[in-house]
Amino acid sequence: MITYEEVSERELLEKAELLKVLGHPERLAIVLLTLNGEMCVKDIVETLGISQPKASQHVGLMKEVGLLTFRKEGTKVLYRVNNEIVKEIMEILFS
Q1: Of the candidates 66, 83, 74, which has an alpha carbon nearest to the alpha carbon of residue 40?
Q2: Contact 7/16 with Cβ under 8 angstroms?
Q3: Which residue ranges run through the membrane (predicted)?
């Protein structure tokens, strides 16, 4: 088990921000969708039934904390969940 003394203030802030980003149901849904493969914002909009600006805002926040990775394919940007971050989240939640 990790103790308070083993964690820096910066790490605490980073983990808190990550958990805050995950605390929104639509962002959590995006994580679940992108676990199965890459998706563009258009796919996210169509699947979740949310507006394009809202989907883009969610994706932007998720990229900022490292939760999503992306690659460009022509003019399309494809997003996928960052498996390393998901592993960390599971350790936070279940250790």
Answers
A1: 74
A2: no
A3: none
Coil, helix or strand at residue 66: coil
> Which residues in 50-83 are b (16+ Cβ under 10 Å) and which e?
beeeebeebbebbeebebbbeeeeeeebbbbbbe
Q: Where are the domains of the chain?
A: 4-94
Predicted confidence pLDDT, tens digits, the chain (95 residues): 678 888 899 988 988 888 899 899 999 899 989 988 999 999 999 999 999 999 999 999 999 999 999 999 999 999 999 988 877 776 776 66
2 and 51 in contact (C-beta within 8 Å)?
no
The model carries a pTM of 0.83
C-alpha triplet 33, 11, 20: angle, nearest 5°: 40
